[in-house]
## 1
Amino acid sequence: MLIPKNNANLMRTKILIKLAESYLENKFADADRIPLNLRPKDGEISRCCVYKDRAVLKYRCMAGLGHCPEEETDELTSLKEYGEQALKRDTAPKNKLSVIDIACSACIKSQYVITDVCRGCFAQPCRLNCPKQAISIINGRAHIDPDLCVNCGKCYEVCPYHSVVKIPVPCEEACPVGAITKDEFGKEHIDTEKCISCGKCLASCPFGAIVERSQMIDVMRKIKETDKKVVAMLAPAVAGQFPGSLNSLAGALKKFGFAEVIEVAVGADITTQKEAAEFIERMEEGQKFMTTSCCPAYFRAAQVHIPEIKPYVSDTKTPMYYTAELMKKEMPDCIAVFVGPCLAKRAEAEYDPNVDYVLTFEELGAMLVASGINVDECEEIPFGKISHAQGRLFPISGGVAGAVADMVQDKVDFRPEKIDGLTKENIKLLKRYATKGCENNMLEVMCCEGGCVSGPGCIALSKKAARAVDTYSKEGAQLTPQTKLG
Amino acid sequence: MEKIKVRICVGTSCFVMGSAQIQSLEFNAPSDIADKIEIIEERCMGLCKDITNKYNRGPFVYVNDDLIEEATYEKVVAKIREKIKE
């Protein structure tokens, strides 16, 4: 049974709601009550005691306020003070995933263990196949010497009794690029140089120990305390994230105080046309294949971890880029806020001068809940720019390649392949394609399995969201290579 | 036997606070209850606004006539099993 969001993740939503409420009610004057309210004395506990729960919650609140728990210099700094500091900053906090060390359970190092199921058999395939001679038979049972074991898993594969188990570390298992590792005390740390900001570790940690800096408070302050026009740019994955129509959502955001709401699918249409043109050009030049570039986690992975593939990555900009460019042309002084399912977009925004802030759907949801806005009851406000079917389908695996295919038509041979999910295996596969070639010529790479609808910042179930995206796309007009955009 | 009505509130507040996750009952409900339930998406029932006495206790889910506050997938499944036994 898979419940996509576990208790640790749901708690994050509650924290964001409480922080948004605290800001709106009294600018964090009572913020230090949040951990107490979420873990009252006689309520349930999820760690050793209510006090530890509250201590962890305080760090999670810090992250919700845009601070990194590692920055703590004085344990007595209150959430009220952290909140006030957040209200003083004028630029977005730098994106960073980090581990709350007291929340990290220091899972035992990933390893293979031989269980009591071992029969001490005559064949001893585990011992024979071990490349490091780490297995010996002691008292009629196989035994792994942890100092010699290199975690290759051969014994696990060959034991006819399935007596070898693998004990994984969830965050390390989830991280596709080996950016999260243990220190000498067994606590996890994230190497910022290696991290691609995909958020897989955050979603996978059963202890809710991994956090990232939120920009929610910054955006709320810009709306409520400055006279700047704040524009929400809704990623195409928004369909299905808030029950009610997208036009009602636009109404809800205007009610909250956003000056303008635009769909990033509009930018996705531009990406589609440009990427198709680029693809045709590259194929005519005789390049083996091209990969998409809209997924910022993949884009960064290619730069840092798969340098072989860099020449094949499309140079076309992302839908967020074109949408923000459009907005800044029309309203040069506006504050452009991208709202999406993605944590890696925060990293992308740091290199995009037109994007000021990035929110997740979860954070936007928390803002709406805290201000008592029900999307379904809001006025339906039509979008100024209308997106097309192709751009709307970007957040589903296969959507980007499909859109480009529609533009390329039969001008050049088009053989798409979906790389659905940036896993350790798929990174190896991409390396192989870059060095040894690939039978297909268009690789669509999505870091999140299933596409952006499965991103870590989503609210809705990916299955339902994918359905909503598909329906919304079918309502859109078809884009053609001749359609004039912008 | 008449199906048990599971009415999940999908108003913004309930949806964000976790009813979105309870919707996984539509796809992979445990086999003992899967064919005994009917899932209904309910627009905001106004329960979250009744916060004069207590703080918003969403998400709200009705299993037949029983209201579940701070509903979770687990709580809803437990209630459905209870109803089946009745």
Note: Chain B has one domain: 4-85.
## 2
Amino acid sequence: MTTHTDLTKAVDLSRKPKPLYARPTLLRHQSGLMNKMGTQPRITPTDAIDGVPVSELVAQYGSPLFVYSQRTIEHRYRELQSNLARRYPKVQPAWSYKTCYLDAVCRTYHKEGSWAECVSGMEVNKALRNGMPMNKVVFNGPAKDEPTLLAALKGGAVVNIDHFDELAAIEQLAKTHGLFPKVGIRLNMATGNTPRWDRFGFNLDNGQAWDAVRRLQAGGRLSLNGLHAHFGTFILDADNYTIGATKVTAFVNRLKRELGITLDYIDLGGGFASQNRLKTQYLPGDQVTPSLAQYAEAVTRGLSELDYAEHELPTLITETGRGLIDEAGTLVTTVLANKRLADGRRAVVVDAGVNLLYTAFWYNFEIETTAPVVGVPEPTVVFGPLCMNIDVVREHIMLPPLPVGTRLLIRPVGAYAVTQSMSFIHLQPAVAMIGPDGQHAEIRAAETLDDLVRNERVPEWIEAGPQPAAGRPATPGRPGTPVLPRLTPLSAADRAIRLN
Amino acid sequence: MPAESLAVSPKAGLTTTIDGAQARPALKLPVVPPAVAATVEGALNSYTQVFFARSPALGLALLAATLVVPRVGLWGLAGVLLANAIAVALQMDKEAVRGGLLGYNALLVFMALGGAVSELSAGALTLGLGAAVLVVLTHVALSGALSYHLRLPALSLPFVFVAWVVMAVAPHLAGVLGVQAAAPLLNATSTGPVTGFLSALGAVFFTPLWPAGLVVFLGLVAYSRIAAVHAVIGYAVALFVESVVFAGAMPDAARAFIGFNFIMTAVALGGIFYVPGRASLVVAAGGAFGCGLASVALAAWLAPLGLSLLALPFNLVTLLVLYALAQRPAEAAPRPVAFTGVSPEEALHYDRTRVQRFRTHLPVPLRPPFRGAWVCTQGNDGEHTHRGAWRHGLDFEVQDDQGRRHTGSGAEVTDWHCYRLPVVAMAAGTVVKVIDGLPDNAVGTVDTRHNWGNLVLVQHAPRVFSMVAHLSPGSIKVVEGQPVAAGAALGLCGNSGRSPMPHLHVQLQATPVVGDPTIPMAFHGVQVDGVADVPFVAVEHLPQRGQTLQALTRTVPMGQVFDWEPGDRFELTVFRDLEPTGETSRTEPVVAEVDLLGAKSLYSAERDARLWYENRGDVFVVYDYQGPRDSGLFAAYCALTKVPLVEAVRLGWTDHLNPRRLGRAGLAWFADALHAFGGKAEQAVIYRAARSGEHLRVHGLGRPGRWQRSVATEAVLTPGVGVKRLTAVVGGRRLVVDWARAAEGGPR
């Protein structure tokens, strides 16, 4: 905390600012409205999260602040799990680590019974750290490093192969270490949504997936025990899942019929939309986003024709991330300044920008105040605190004039915001979690300058100044001259990725 | 008089590993060559098989009793050895010889012969040799035919037939007395109630003297109190029949054999072939009474042929009762024992424990008719429609974790959580009736013309039909006549028929007619929420309103914990308190085996201990344990009795342990005979499972009782890996077992 700059402290909140002159706004009168207030959005303030006053949270953990609701996390997870379980006999959700891999969040999911879905060595190690045994880890992704891959194969993780090169690499690895691992392959296919997702896995429609299975069999080292298919992201039309699952089902049945392969699992990925609103989206999330029950229905309807006896059905693995956690996350931010842009729009500067909300590039977040604000809402641009043109949180939102120091809640930000946030210009803020009984705690402390520079190194020649030290030749690289810069050694994982 | 064909005794079962190694010997005599041990064991078991037992210790007592009249005893012993040798020479089943199954008829024949032979003439020896061959052949032929065609044991019929032959031939040989010479040996000589009983018991071994009978009786008491009590009951019935029914005027030919026929019938029916209990007591006493009438009738019929009764009344009455009661269409009391060749006490507690653990009142176990968790909204005798002839109906709906059964206002059927969720078959069966096409009602309205709406009726067993009703139109996936598996989708939950809001109605009925009365139902092996402090797994459960039910769905990692295939080897490190030798731990290797009938077990050669288990898909079950209480497998018996293969955050269940496996608590030894008719000796253990890190910990607690020893267990399981550590504290003795897979290299 010592070096974290709390921008709100730059503005002395204890001093009542003298009211500034603000140019009056003229709003065009629209006919056909009930009254002169018409359908102006009414801002209903939200002063508490899960019953905990926002002021209390900010006083304790500072602003900006990410807040997660454990109650919402658990509720959404149970809703997904039970809705799937009522429709398909064997269900196993796996928490998508990349969506939010804070330990406290992951462990909440694991406690509920979720496995871990990881797409890098770092994530796998994080899952193991969170108490997941390797055989409850689903290892996906196009870039699996060799040490983690080996550990995953040895430990019985669910490994889904993304491309032929990986298939060959795993075969080689298995041969070297005398393993005969079970693996899955990832499929992609047209399910009616755009853009078509064909960058991951093997294409089902053009026969590549079938070739991959034959290739896998021909290798003699690996055996196929599952399929993975991820149909896209933020899929608002649940029917895509039915189409996709039906195609997968046909493929599974063909594998059984023609090759005698029976599967242990079918992993249908994630992609469930949250209540968030894409920039391209006309209607708000609560009107268009299918419920978890509707997604569950769509997925399992596609699996209804599996040619398996009831008790031999493959386990359905899901990797839903965003659909589970987005609504559980809130970003508390504070108004730093008001502005009037040259085109007449009002602008407000807040202390959380795209450094924390990379997701702001594709979402129009909801922004709420924590206390009633007087004044007529008008079109407003919300800027973040970065000295960068791109730092726009909302390009257009109807907001009343917001005095400096006003707390705002940006939601839903549970998915990706924390894992994608960066220490850019400002240090990263604290993350808090509110427990089921209203207790709360910091689950990640705010970043400090020490944290930021911990891995930085300054080469000696810079430290030493412009003159070479006595006794040292000016030219580096000669025998007996230890002048190479001390750079951070590459980790084995990094090296593997670079070699790939 | 055994029933080797009825079932395989757990002790006598042929157990082989897949690499063909033969099972352990039943008697361990390390210093004696195996052939001698087998000979001695076969001989002694031939004595105990007269009482259907396999117990060399009892055999010694009985051998002693026969030697009260040395001539009879020595002839009997010689006959047993001779017959067993002949059976071995003829390549008969060696395990049967060892169990005494081929020797006991020879014993009886030769004891009869011993009573009749006056000198060791060539004729007598020839007769003996011939009788030995004949009795072996007769037994093998008769028991083979009876067991194959009628599933009945041969009992002592071979003795009766061979004795008739011997008695007919004997008078023509030098050195052998007349036909009736041996007959008095079966005739109780004493008349007092006690000495009469004892001499009748002695007469079973052709030694109708009360001291011999006393030895037999004491041996019988040591072996089985239940059998001893039934022996007394049999003799009491005999006295009643003789003195009251026939008022002392029973024909001599019948009375001569009266005592032991009654006794044997009562013992056989009361504890050997049926689980001891009130019903078997009635059957035993009734069978003995029938013996009285049969004796008189048979004596009259056999007199013109010059044949004596011998053990014929006992054989015919027992076989008649066994065969007739086997024709009952459903299981009923007295229940047949699961294994013959074990003591009545063993059969009693095995059966009691099994009933407690697995009892179902229906011929088929039923799973819930849905997937996932549903809540019961109207139970039996419900407040709405489960009345009168339809009182055994059950209604289910889906409730979310906030207790709501619908979204929004619930004004549309689609608002209801359960609407159009899959409905599945409760057990395997055949679809006998489908009604489809009735519309889903608007919420709040009902269709009283079509009470059950769209429905599927499935037959699971004779007179067991299940109906799921109010299904959504067009959703039914099955057709009449189609076989369905348990859990197979039938249709989707809807709101047709007399249903104001979407829900699922289920009921059982005895007939395939829609609208017929309901019969009681229950679900088996289900997880129930809302009853105990933790969700619990019930063996059999009739849900009440407000309770949430779900089928157990195995998770793959939990299934892997008990993924034991035949040939797998484990290394148990056993720590024990009170180790007499001062050692603190020892290593006990264990191997997984499967026998010819498919029963899976873990076997510890070091402790000669065996644990029978099965991974039943949704639950792991230990069926039984045999061995000493210091084997690591004993801890597994107590701690892993039943483990649902689910990784719930918390879960509870109860199970029962066989008191005979836990060791005796004080007076329990004497109480077995009483337990047959009342009281409870099984140890009820409450198990609780909780996740802790990567482990699942299962704690078991059984409180000490009058007949129960205290049991406390802990099992630490690692899902996806296996058993990690077991602790069992039984009656204060603590056993801790670290469980590990043996290193690779053993034969698989």
Note: The interface with chain A takes residues 370-374, 398, 400-402, 407, 417, 420-422, 424, 485-489, 550-551, 553-557, 560, 617, 647-649, 691, 693-694, 718-721 of chain B (CB under 8 Å).
## 3
Amino acid sequence: MSAVPQQELPRPGGFPEIRYKRYLPKLGPSGLVLFSGITLMCTFGLYRTGQGIHERRELEREKVWSRIYLIPMLQAEADRDTYRREVAAREREAQIMKNVKGWKVGESVYNSKRYTPQTHVVLP
Amino acid sequence: MSTHREATNLSTGKFVDPTPAPSESAHPEVGATSAPLKSAAFFIGAYCKDYNEDFLLCKDENNDPAHCLKEGRKVTRCAMDLINKLRENCEKEWETHYKCLEKHNQEYYACRKQESTFNECVFSKLVML
């Protein structure tokens, strides 16, 4: 037995490095790039959606105004026709009720001066 | 034998009153269909603004059809006048535009090109605004 104790030592040149890390290949862009890219895309999409909503609203406004501008003309025409029908109906009523004493032709059933369209009409 | 019917039948066309209009309300009608009217709507609105507003104020005063016959005749006459002017000056452009409207469900946005040529014609030939 020698006096110098024999100690276990690494082999000459040392052990190779232990590979404890995962060596995955780098996949795709970084999180920051992804996050900011998605934010940008969403912002752009929302902007375009907003523009579309504005445009649709304007189109609707245009349509409504085109109808508003035509209302007086159409209403005037309809009024003349209604007036013609009412006069004719009153004449028929007068003809039918001429023998009834105290009958007022075209008298409203309402106790009001406001105009009410006729709900019933006398047909010949 | 006369009967009573609901007045709603009148608008469904089951009963057409053949009585001619009384002399105080008789007036020729515009007689245009929906597409030409829609095509010229903004011109009618601008050209007949005073008459239209007068008529609507009158209607607001009293809803009776007999109350606003005079104002209504003015409105119709104004629209007919404008339609005659459009037909004299821009008939081709107007026809192109309203035929396009007819084809595209009467949506304005489908016929911008025809609309702008019609507008250009009206603005250059009819100074009315």
Note: The mean pLDDT of chain A is 90.
## 4
Amino acid sequence: MNKTGSNENMAQLKGASDANLRELGRLEEMVGPEWARLVRGVFTNPLSIVGLILVSSFILIAAFAPVLAPPLTTLGDPYLIPRDGYSPEPKPPGTVWQHDIPPIPFWYQAVTGNEEWVHLLGTTSGQFDIYYGIIWGTRTALFVGVFITAVTVVIGLFVGAISAYYGGWVDDLLMRITEIFMAFPFLLAALTLSAILVPLFGRGIWPATIALVCFGWMTYARVLRAEILSAKERDYALAARVLGAKDSRILARHIVPNAIYPILVLASMRVGDYVLSFAALSFLGVGTDIGYADWGQIVSFARDWILSLDIHWYIIVYPGIALLLFGLGWNLIGDALRDILDPRLRKGN
Amino acid sequence: MTAYIIRRLLQLPFTMLGVTLLIFAMLQLLTPVERSALYVPSIPHNEGAIDAIIAKYGLDDPFYIQYWRWLVGHKDVNTGEIKGGVLRGDLGFSRSGRQDVIDMIAQRLPATVEMALWSVFPIIGIGIWLGVISAINHNKPIDQIIRVFTTIGWSFPTFVFGLLVLLLFYTKLGWFPPGRLSDPINAVVMSPSFRRYTQLNTVDGLLNGRMDVFWDALRHLVLPILTLSYVVWARILRVTRSSMLETLRQDYLRTARAKGLSEKIVVYRHAFRNALLPVITIGGSMVVGLLDGTVVTEVIFNYPGMGSATARAASSLDATAVLAFVLFGGMVLTVANLIVDVLYAMVDPRIRLT
């Protein structure tokens, strides 16, 4: 058994006895002590509360996107940003909408006292509305981030569990394959793969998403393998074996649920990273098509206006703020989780 | 330790072989016609000629035969001419760059190397310095400020940061222009009297005694370096800080303080060196940050290096070229990881057993 493992055991025992002294709270009864500690920790740390607020705001914006920025029904797909004519010159925030005006949201007049629908955050070249793109881009970001995270965690879970469970040459083979995937710079590899996938899938969110999944699962596989290897030696796993439980049951019911915490932290920290990487791929031209509601896509319009960025600053600043706050939100939660789960940082230690 | 290093060196060819296998597997996602760029510069337009090329280079042969040909080359039975062969340095033709990929790498690599080398100093120097400051002022305002700066840096998309920096220092203030050299200086560099010793403009400028070349090259590098550094700083700062915090709690430091040594000596003579050990381990992820970062940075600052070539190849779906670049990136990273591991084994005796 390794050193950190025994420390953690000690800390767990200590935590359990503390909990007994405090008498079990309702939260503990509902979700168990380990999860209760996580939930309580995330809700008491000021930084992670900021993170939670940011992330839940984005979820709300995504949920109420049709209310915040009603789509133009004639376009069919709400993820296509409505455009106000085709002029190449970006227009500043507050410019009145002139062509193909989408429905005006009901709150607009009450809030602003203005009857005309304006480009709240300006337009890009080609007159794509930035406000609409950011609102609906929230859905794109959340979907991409959560989807990539979920799929990579599942792949990592499988590879890690099989590797640790079978050991021997299976383990060797899987870990060598994992290492080969890790031998590539992440963004560069994803850029390449999505450039290859674009002719197969067409432009859209899928090439970049699949590419990020392909080069994103390795950390989970390795961490999970290590966790399972150490959990296999713990007393509770031995106890389950003594009771005659099958290996697969021990793995699924006892070991994986205990090894999942580090994965959880990693995963929550990566949601933001994935969305930033996805945006970078869009920015570089292998992500979504022009005019798709996607933050990186909007920023990429700025590439044509380097000489007049001071006039057209809104093309970068607004989607940039959205990206920054999104990344920040997830990172703050991830940071807090990491501190909670780090046995060295536990209170009273 | 020698045994460890030898073992680690022996692993290198296998990892590299794996890297080529994965690249080749990605190549197989392309149609045979697209793959013809490995051997011929342009796709012929009539059906018969396409079939002839596919037959000539065996582009629909079984996987392993194609892999072997791609790796070591393909001998033409009639002319005896060898085509292809990654090991021979034949990486195919870049349709977006209109030249052989290997020539493109030779031409553009120095620019990227120059940018990366210059970035290493601020990244390591300032990153470690801020990390130490943050640790010795644990939980004081300065620590909090540095931590906020780190978390924001961690979440800041490189391309947005780069564009904002460009907005401020170029469009608004006009201090640092994008590109690699300004036109008059470029003419100097291209003139026959200017000797290109290293292809790095700053170094060549100094070697030729042309300070104007040196300053102009540096002026163009400031913003890319700042952009590259800002994102990698977060990483190195975080590791330095936590490692320093851990070290400062050690018993031998209490002993040093108990002896009456000044805090300065305790921190910089006793703690600093030990705290730096774990920082070496993120060397690999720093190389990843630099390789990934140069792609975005070079695109934003219109800098003619490998990164912008990769981005152009990718956005024009020039797959063979972009695969060649990522193969190159994979090789660089594999070697960098080897160096990091060996270096770590050399400085930390506890590693040698594993």
Note: The two ends of chain A are 21 Å apart (CA to CA).
